[in-house]
Amino acid sequence: MGEDASIRVHDNLEANIAWYKSLADQHLLLASSYTPNETVMQAPRIAFGSEWSLIAWLFVWFKPIVAYNINVILMSLVAFFGTYLFTKDTLKLSPKIAPFIALGFALLPFWFSGGLSSAGQPLLFWSFDRILKKHNSVIDWIIFLLFPFYSSLILSGLFMMVLMVGYLGVNFLKKERKIAYGTGVLSLIILTIGYILVDYRLFLDILKIGTPAGFTPHRVEFVQGNTFAESIKAAKNSFLGGQNHFPSFHTYLILPLVFFYLIYGFFKQKKLVTVVFCLVILGIIAIIDGFWNFTGFESLKDKLPILKAIQLDRFYSLYPNLWFGVFVLIIRELPIKIAIILASIQVMIVLFSNQLVGDYIKKTIHGRDYVSYREFYAEDLFSKVKTVLKEDENPNKRVGMVGLHPAVAQYNQIPTIDGYVVLYSLAYKHQIQAIIQPELNQNKFIKNYFEQWGSRCYLFDNEAVIAGDGILKKQKCCTESLDYDFDKLKQLKCGYILSAVEVRHPSEHLKLLSKVEDANWRVWIYKII
């Protein structure tokens, strides 16, 4: 479907895709870590990932939508073949059933920016098992060499290595003699060195090598204080429902199957150690995920700032592989026909839980609208916006966005003063905060959202709150006023406000230049005077 496909907005269209395109457009991929990205709120280059990432180079070599689709196809192909090999060789599943499990795993909607962080885990664990059992070949070592270049250390690499070290430790305690501990450790050393090379910017920054004097990241102000009851609820939801960036879709079939298997196994006196052990690991991950934002841990995070940079709750990146692993451990004991039926049901659950398929069905059968890639970025519409900005005589061409994601302008090569960035200076956050403070004071939710997190450094308005898909045309017609400090806006060389809603009382600081629209967006172009 190309650009007409429905693609995830959250942490995707509104963020990563625009980031990669901005690096390619400005030839910033190889720039030094603190070179400002002029398109994305002048955030430092280090905020946008490594130049050693395959995904980043796909955006250099191809159009964004082509790069996106190549990445999705590669992730799914590796997931399929890796899961097939892992379940057949490592978990000893029948070759007749393994393709169905592999298909179910490969159809999971892997997070685009993760690369093989989730999709490649079965392949990596397959190679690790072969290395430990002395069945390895050159290809296994190549997998360990190349894996860091198409995955993320902070998303999953660190947690996969913890799991593999744990596996080594369990075998050592059991005094398993058939394990090649030396080569296992060597493979982990190779993986570690690979991640250090790929994420060298991160490690240099941790050591304060090349970091500008006085630079303080906005992340030091992260405050996420859930109560004990809220943390318990979050842990329960994590265990039962999974995590949205690393979906496992285990709720409707795998989880009930586990429940009945444990009851059946208990009365039949079956050996349940392996399944129970995996469930214990999944439970621990859920507890870490649920309690990571517990208010009682905030003082520890303040003492160890690295905990705010590397979120330990991301052990949830292991969910898909572990839940499917438990699924395999159970169905491999069932008759082949029943196992194939259950695996096929899981394939259908995964398929119809996928946003791409779900939104297509909504549109074709129910006639409901969905936001496509083309509609979200609205290149034709924003070419008109660029024409208006170009024709206006104003040296300050940077814009602020109201009621729509700054990524839309950034994708269209319009530089913004606001944006969604995982790392930028605390001083810049305070500059934006000073501009929008009157609006924040009118809405407790956006005030806490900005002040206690702030990675979405948006020009928030009390009335024009962005919806999940970022499109407000059918939701709200206007906002009464923008209570901003316009003098401070001009200090950031912001010359315009692009608003998804009309400002009824623009005050003496705003002059309406034009209004452009298409089937999804209305954009009012205001000049700051």
TrEMBL record:
Pfam families: DUF6044
Domain of life: Bacteria
Membrane-crossing residue ranges in chain numbering: 65-86, 98-121, 141-167, 179-198, 249-267, 272-294, 314-331, 338-357
Family annotation (InterPro entries): DUF6044 (IPR046107)
Protein keywords: Membrane, Transmembrane, Transmembrane helix
Protein name per the record: Membrane protein YkoS
The organism of origin for this protein: Emticicia aquatilis
